[in-house]
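Quick question, first post here. What does this chain look like in 3D?
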Amino acid sequence: MKLMYRSILRSGWWLKSKKSKGARTARDPLLSGDEQGLDRTSNPALAVPCSLYREIEAAQTIGELRKLSVKIVDFVRLATSMHADTKSIVHHISQFNSAITQRLIALLESTEGIRLPEGATYLALGSEGRGEQTLCTDQDSAIVYIDDLPPEKLRDVERFATRLVDALEEIGVPRCPGNMMASTPQWRHSLTEWKEIIDQWVTVPTPEHMLYFGMFLDIRSLHGDETLGTQLRDHICAVVRLAPFFLPNMAGHVVRFPPALTRFGRIRVERSGEHKGKVDLKKAGIFAITAGTSLIALEVGIIGGTTWEKLELLGKRRVFTSGDLKIIVEAFTFLVQLRVQGHLRDLSANGKPSNHVDPLVMTDIERRQFRQALKGVNTFLRIVRNRYLLDYISI
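> Answer (accepted):
Ran it through. Tokens below.
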């Protein structure tokens, strides 16, 4: 939990004590420019993050954590109404979720005697690994452990993983539909076994292997021995450097969805099914920019962090021109913003959060911004296709 507080301070969240005159205040990423000068004690929304973290740390039961997970939605709704920037909202959603998971792990040990043994690490994958979750998220996790972990400790690992996945579901985090969770034996291995699996994914890039690799690429050690996660990241970088044809194959995986904006400037919507007339924001660009950015970052030796952070680093390395970088960042941010707003609307209507939006219910300004964002996605897709020569090779 101390790691969470350091993250809060780095992101600019400071609580001003009523007893302390001149207490330090910092620019807050969740405030728009007009709100930066407000006294934090006069605005109740500004105290939400730190107070919520304290409540999470003080929770004594799984039921209390479930109630706090609902408060995260209230925080996002309030932050959105204050026109907070999307990147900071997503950052805090992810930090809240990580704090809840870590508190849950502590409760399982103190109340049920279930703990992850030394020599093992619980890993967050996908959006949780990147630290950019929204309100529609499921469990994506894995476990790595040292090669010589005793058999009785392996049983403790299995017990921990199974109970944690069940407990997360109890507090409202759905299971992964594809079963990519630590409770599944396929996602629990020793360090050497994981390295061999990664080698297989890279050297035999089937669609299934590329899917798994994409999920595993942004691993983050959430509990346990962090050095094991670091060794896996180092191995990923090393093995990819030795497999030059892997990057183009992964790039083909990144651009597999047709552009949501046609060459004639029309928005491509689903033509049938439950979401007829709507656009899947993930397929429309969020996936391509997220996965493509991670891939290009990996190529230049960058692994881990959010999509925004990777894009910034790639810009500094002149992988993108300043103009293209601005277009891509704005496109990604707007699509994620639409996703968060859509989730809030779905939850307010007691529905299940969806990644689909209907262009016809958007205002003229929103539709124009949406079309502009989709143009930005096309810019990114063009860069990926050109970088990996996808129009000249057969994958």
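Residues 122 and 143 are 5 Å apart (CA to CA).
The longest strand covers residues 120-124.
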